[in-house]
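CheY-like receiver
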Amino acid sequence: MDFLRRSSAHAQAPRPDLILLDLNLPGRNGHEILEDIRADAALSSIPVVILSTSGADRDIKKAYALGASSYVSKPMDVEAFTAAIHSIEDFWFGTAQLPP
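Predicted structure tokens:
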């Protein structure tokens, strides 16, 4: 969150055009971080793609309820994972119009 908010050592960090967020993180979980992103006016317009090993309905529903832009179940196979990342990249940077 310090990086996204450009605070402390990250004051000069560029703001991302897209956030890939895992739900299973050390400390705080991805749902909590998503909630913080959506509550921050400076960050709320950045698309957030949940990329998680969880395919549980409750996790998917909660992510969308908190404002996720999309939800992708993370493939465990390296080739499938690479293909998923390319699909995300193609859609968000090739098809979708991102906020300025």
